[in-house]
Amino acid sequence: MLAEVALLVALSVQEGGGAESCMDAEQLKRGVEKRLRRRVFVEPSEASLKLLVVFSKHGADTEARIEISSIDGTPRGTRSLVTSGHCSALDDSLALSVALLVDQPPDPEPEAQPEATAPSAPAMTAPAPPASPAAPASPPAPPRAVPTPITIPPEVAAPREPWRFSVGASGLAAWGVLPGIVPALALYSKVVPPHFVPILLEGEGFWPATAERDAHSGARFKLFRAGLALCPALHESAQVAAAVCVGQKVGWLKVDGYGFDQNLSERRLNFSLTAGGEGRLRLFAPVSLRGYLGAEVPLARDRFTSGGRNSSQLFELSPVAILGEIGLEAALW
To answer: What's the pTM value of the predicted model, to 2 decimals?
Structure first.
């Protein structure tokens, strides 16, 4: 029996929820025909085979399930590809798998044979001639093995993976950057380039803080800061994510004395290195609850003292500051 050669195929592609960015039918057709260097896909009226590709999302994984059958619907086999990255990481492997299937399609799967029923005994029969030896029954066809899903390694490039961008706002409390425990408002944006770690840009405005020398004199502190951090993911799924963030911050500090014979004002720049962990819990698309807990180490520890005969230290930056944030984050794309 001659093998089937250059069979034409009717293709259909289905994209389930969360898999809208996967390869569409036209992209798949071009990828397969480019590899086989011939026409493959036609309208169903001209085709000998049907091929269905179904994309679906299962947690953090995206699956492409390939089902091939004869034009009359007789199954000829399936194949499954899975990636934990962006759906476009499947592109090359999917086009190659489909090309191999349609170039040398599997044989039709055998249909299950109905069980033979025992014949009823006749009421009266003439003596039967001696029976000739029965031919040995042919062994049943072995069951077709279920194909193992092919997992695409995470380092495989996803050529159509887009840049992702999100913004957020959070309430912040810090100890060690100003006198006492001081609240602040933080606004930030996060950019996730393809094949790179997320980049966090943050601005912070602190509530004014006071360091008193006595009941009538002291200093008032105002601080605004900007920060940059890299936040590689430790765990990421559709609902929960965790990351570690390492970066630096630069602050603009203004200190105004009050209640002295001569009140002075100073402006300082301060720099610190930061490290901490963040977690996100998805509330509803596209909004998530975000929390952060981290520590900071200043590169220079400014000290502020009062002048005169009763000189005293008002405030000195802590060698390690502690910060905590909680707020909301919205993914824009």
So the answer is: 0.64
